[in-house]
Specification:
The protein is of the alpha+beta class and 181 residues long. It is built from three helices and ten strands; from the N terminus they run αααββββββββββ. Helices cover 16% and strands 38% of the residues. The chain is globular.
Length: 181
């Protein structure tokens, strides 16, 4: 008798249960570890990836009351606009391609800092972290993101003349937004 293969959702749930993570808020190092473990389990998420030229694509892979994991597909020239994660901490892992990030802290003055995240790189951030993440190309990129607690809102910012950040608007969300419009 042959047993049915697990769906991607079932296999992902089994993977997460095997990690024995706290059901509550995860710290930055735990989020970094989580996206790294997902990256290593590429057979679970790679068949799901999409790269759509007209919009940044994303799909939730897993969610608990304490954290969630997302898969994002980026075509060239797609970005997030300057935002924070509404009180959530997070981690990013670049699984394919490269992403460029302009980042700051809500309370830091001066220009945003720029860093290029290449394939295989991860970065954790806290709740006051503000950034714009994007694919400057050429080619596409794929990334894994974990947030704790799960996203419920995102605050979008604009740069002021003196290099600071000013809140522009807030969106109630159920995941990474396609655009800030």
């Amino acid at each position: 008798m042959r047993t049915a293969e697990a769906t991607p959702e079932e296999a992902i749930a089994t993977l997460v249960r095997s990690l024995d993570l706290s059901p509550h808020r995860l710290a930055g190092d735990e989020l970094t570890q989580l996206v790294g473990i997902f990256a290593d389990a590429h057979e679970l998420w790679r068949p799901l990836v999409q790269h759509i030229p007209s919009e940044r694509w994303y799909r939730r892979l897993y969610r608990t009351a304490g954290f969630e994991v997302w898969l994002l597909g980026w075509d060239a020239a797609q970005d997030t606009k300057i935002h924070d994660h509404g009180g959530s901490s997070g981690a990013i892992y670049v699984a394919e391609g490269a992403l460029v990030e302009y980042h700051s802290d809500r309370d830091r003055q001066g220009p945003m800092l720029r860093v290029r995240h290449r394939h295989g790189r991860s970065r954790a951030f806290g709740p006051s972290y503000v950034h714009n993440l994007g694919n400057e190309g050429p080619g596409f990129a794929t990334s894994l993101h974990a947030y704790s607690p799960p996203l419920t809102k995102m605050n979008y910012y604009r740069c002021t003349l003196d290099g600071g950040l000013e809140l522009d608007h807030t969106l109630e969300v159920e995941g990474p937004e396609r655009s800030a419009s």
